[in-house]
Amino acid sequence: MSMRFPVFVLLFLAWSMTGRTDFELFDHLAEADLERLRLGEWIVESESSTDHWATASVVIFMPAPPERIWNTIINCRDAFVFVDGLEYCEVLEERGDFALTRQIVDKGWTVPQLEFTFETKREPYHHMEFDMVEGNMKVMRGSWDFKLLEDGTLVRYTLILQPLFPAPRWLVRRNMKRDLPGMLRCIRGLVADGPLTASVIQDRQQCPGELSES
Questions:
Q1: Between the CA atoms of 3, 35, 56 and 181, what dihedral angle is there, to the nearest 10 degrees?
Q2: CA separation for the pair 137, 124 (Å, rounded)
Q3: In a 10 Å sphere around its CB, with 0-12 CB exposed, 13-18 middle and 19+ buried, how is residue 62 labelled?
Q4: What order do you get walking across the sheet with 152-163 strand by strand?
């Protein structure tokens, strides 16, 4: 179950990915919000779309250390599990604070096949931001933020997309509303440790790719 949160404007989303400041991205969360997040809900901070672009920002709690979540997100093997329609993934270049990755995503006849190469700037276990450098979209950029708590990690994912050609607004919004929370729940299921509880099973059922037996 998701919760709606006061909407941040696109300008704020773009600003939040262009540089780090002393502003804490999770400070707006009240204790009641944190309680609901720990119960498995997620917060859609912002969601907006037109025929030409779409943006969304989602916060979720994962009962796992940020290192485990981070390593799952940057791993192509795991990406085939949590990225819907991913057909190809290769890390072309990687060093401590930088990576260059190529991916091909095909979600079927409703959405054109996407081919893109994106660079990722990393502050390990705290923040990473990605930006397309080559591909068949005008804009694909976003960020991941992590905040360690005593019992797990808050994760904030922000995405901005602008396709080359206009797409039906209803289709863009449906994909963003369905895919982003589903992807985050899948990652939460992948990083879960301990007994295979009902909530972990439900999260893993959100994974569009095939789960490893190990």
A1: -80
A2: 27
A3: buried
A4: 2-4, 42-49, 54-62, 152-163, 137-149, 127-135, 114-123, 98-105, 86-95
- What are the angstrom distances between the C-alpha of 10 and each of 7, 32, 66, 160, 201? 9, 26, 27, 9, 34
Do the bridges between strand 54-62 and strand 152-163 make them parallel or antiparallel, or are there none, so unpaired?
antiparallel
Domains, in order of start, for the chain: 2-204 (3.30.530.20)
pTM: 0.85
pLDDT in tens, the chain (214 residues): 544 433 333 333 444 444 444 346 788 899 999 999 999 999 988 777 665 678 889 999 999 999 999 999 999 999 999 999 999 999 999 998 999 999 999 987 767 889 999 999 999 999 999 999 999 989 999 999 999 999 999 999 999 988 887 666 666 666 666 789 999 999 999 999 988 999 999 999 999 999 876 5
- In Å, the largest CA–CA distance within the chain is 46
Stretch (H or E) spanning 25: none
* Other residues' Cβ atoms within 10 Å of the Cβ of residue 174: 13
Spatial neighbors of 9 by CB under 8 A, at least 6 apart, are: 46
> How many secondary structure helices (H) and strands (E) does the chain include?
6, 9
